[in-house]
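Example 206.
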Amino acid sequence: RAHAIPNVMHRTDTVDLLRAEAASCRRCPLWRPATQIIFGEGPPNADIMVVGEQPGNQEDKTGCVFVGPAGQVFDRALIAAGIDRSQLYVTNAVKHFKFELRGKQRIHARPNVTEIDACRWWIDQERALVRPKLIIAMGATAARSLLEHPVRIADCRGSAIALPDGTPCWITVHPSALLRLPDGVDMEAEFDRYVTDLRLAVRSLD
Ligand code: URA
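Predicted structure in complex with uracil:
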């Protein structure tokens, strides 16, 4: 057809539509106390999709993914690994900030399986539209969302697991884990392992 819409344009439009639709998500109760939904960001035809856990306090306020303390570790690791963040589609397994109030402070609370399952609706659609060549799951929540069963990060980092549609999924730690390492654990060594995981995953596309 002479007036067919180019594929890339169509896909761009569609991720934007999905984002607009997600703004009124009521699939689980997390929308109610949150400020806004934080949807995925990045090129809608990215080769690589990175999946985190859920937005934090600063993401909830700004509306952007990975801009708070975990985002700063993520950014540092990407620079160390030689990866350009603007080429990545970055999203979360759960798209509203879950927190507990302590006084006026909003303290991060880990999403449960029901919330992860409810939000899989969005990540499945992001995957279908972006069609990444590989996915990097950062942390247990992201891995649980993608694999649909629990895993220990230590058992599966460093190599790819094929998702049911064949997409290779590389699992690594969540950057926030590097901010709360137990005493005695070498932060720089753990950071280097994280960088190595990211670099290995991305290089597997070469
Ligand atoms: N942690 C995440 O998993 N995602 C964010 O966007 C921010 C912090």
